[in-house]
Write a structure and sequence with these properties.
alpha+beta; Immunoglobulin-like; 6-stranded antiparallel β-sheet; 33 helices
Length: 820
Amino acid sequence: MPAPIRLRELIRTIRTARTQAEEREMIQKECAAIRSSFREEDNTYRCRNVAKLLYMHMLGYPAHFGQLECLKLIASQKFTDKRIGYLGAMLLLDERQDVHLLMTNCIKNDLNHSTQYVQGLALCTLGCMGSSEMCRDLAGEVEKLLKTSNSYLRKKAALCAVHVIRKVPELMEMFLPATKNLLSEKNHGVLHTSVVLLTEMCERSPDMLAHFRKLVPQLVRILKNLIMSGYSPEHDVSGISDPFLQVRILRLLRILGKGDDDSSEAMNDILAQVATNTETSKNVGNAILYETVLTIMDIKSESGLRVLAINILGRFLLNNDKNIRYVALTSLLKTVQTDHNAVQRHRSTIVDCLKDLDVSIKRRAMELSFALVNGNNIRGMMKELLYFLDSCDPEFKADCASGVFLAAEKYAPSKRWHIDTIMRVLTTAGSYVRDDSVPNLIQLITNSVEMHAYTVQRLYKALLDDISQQPLVQVASWCIGEYGDLLVSGQCEEEEPIQVTEDEVLDVLEGLLVSNLSTPVTRGYALTAIMKLSTRFTSVNRIKKVVSIYGSSIDVELQQRAVEYNALFKKYDHMRPALLERMPIMEKTASNGPTEIVQTNGEAEPSVVEAKHPPPVTQPTNQANDLLDLLGGNDVVPVIQTTVPAKPASAGGELLDLLGDLSLSGGPAPAPATSVPSSQPAFLLDGLTSPPLFNDIAAAGIPPMTAYNKNGLKIDFTFERANPNPNIAVITIHASNSTEADMTDFVFQAAVPKTFQLQLLSPSSNVVPALNQGTVTQVIRVLNPQKQQLRMRIKLTYTHKGSAVQDLAEVNNFPPQSWQ
């Protein structure tokens, strides 16, 4: 058989291939030849064939059939064979394949070989792909080599020990004695790998971290020698002595100094020296400075040192390298909360980064700019950020608009400035703002009584210029509907009033109704605004005509509004002025009425909601079925009460039809009580003439009871009778918490047999305060027409000290007065 071609010739041949298909053909032909050679057990050219196979593997072609040949090369006595064999094992084998276990004995023999280079090959292979079983078997040999005086083997053994610790952390203590003398080594390679090993051990074990803190002075001394040493050709990189070792030592110091006063004190001086003596003209120096800054920020360093670190990051912002500017912005963003004043000194440089062409730098600069906004610089910062909002890419507009809203709400110097700023955002990037921006701005305008005339005039002008920004159009429509009389009368004092007639205002609103740019929600705002103007303008007949047209609109929402407003004109005209009067000032603490709670950056803020017909309340089927087994069968009628709703419904929305909607058993519902409306009102206001659902409740002298008392949570029931229907028992639960921690996400659920009907109203809170400092109350109404003994199964869920708790209990000992 002719000798196979050499690796060099194979590479040259493959590189001559002009197409992928031609290259594939060459590879397949060569693989066939290599397979034939392997089958014939050709020891002479096995090394050459495996080397070619590894090259083909690096090109992405399958080479798994060479795994056993690698093991044969490892077992060879020739160094050249071992070298290729170990290289093949590292590339073709991993711990997922059982073949690698066959190497264990060979590696053990080679770790004890008389030649250091063979020992080095074995250490490299074990440190690269050794499985946990191999690491357990060979850890003793590695530890022995870690103590040898040969620096070539010690540095490889240290890296191999890192791999062993990662695979089998419990073997960490085996290497502890060997680490004592590692830092006294003069060889930089051994020092570097030793620091890597110590870092790994400290990160994985708090005990090791405490043990190695005593090495801080020694590490400081090594770092000082590196800084102060003169030119050393074998370690010098761009004029800096061994920057790789310096970076590794700084990382280890960061871990050792975190949360420890003594260690931090010991390294303060050397960190200051590194920060002031390192050359910044080359990237190597910047890498060391960046690690120094991270270390200063993580340990308990002095305030002057932290200012120095932030000034280094400020210098990074002026660097031409985009990567350096990016890491500086990211680091400043992390430190701005703890060192706000020091970061503020670099505000102008940070704002300049908003003009950078790189999008990632712009995003980081925008986030940092918002973090720097405070009451003193709000005007200047908002000017820059609004300019950025005007010119930035669409992908930034939503986040930028949201940040401007939050900053303006928190630091606005005056209400007029606040309104002007938000209107500027809506005009510039109205299509990108968050959904809660419209109700939040409406609430702001409503509460700024002295600004009503100014605001409605500004918004009217904005509508004349542009109706494409839907949030702006919605706010403008709402304000014109509320304060249209102020607009027409020209009462604006803040700027020169404009002369507007009623017909011009109505023309604008009617234009919104027919515009293709208007969304269904915007049309709803416009129609409601026109309706409100029927009590503020004299053109009532024109408004009636517009409203009646939309009574047959294909948009169901718009049609419903128009039909209900038509009913107002006809059936309830005497009530129209009172119903359409101006909205009162909205208090943020209001729990009912026209506000809803919106989560804004972790804080609950109220926002205005449209007065709309509440949708019929339906029970979620899947939730109901989950509770059907509470009483052990199908004869139960569960009532589901979820957590406190984020949007408290109006009083009318919480009044469920006790007798119509809650029957989940499939049978016919009992006849309705006289005080409960049996059908849905035909129009929004038809229900106003119906008798109230809840009558005054009279105390019936029923003794209270404790339904549940476990793990510090106590549930008490108090009872009342509803007049005039004695079949309805009103039970109020009082949940108290005697533990030392609040119980959050508290949810009370209940189920009763199907002969009863039950309704849960919203709880007063979803947090049960600790140490009995308050209670959560919730009202349960139970209809018991057959006067049967009351039985109930309750389900409690809550979060206590970070753990979710869930419990079931059955309550059968109700006082007879509560159900007789």
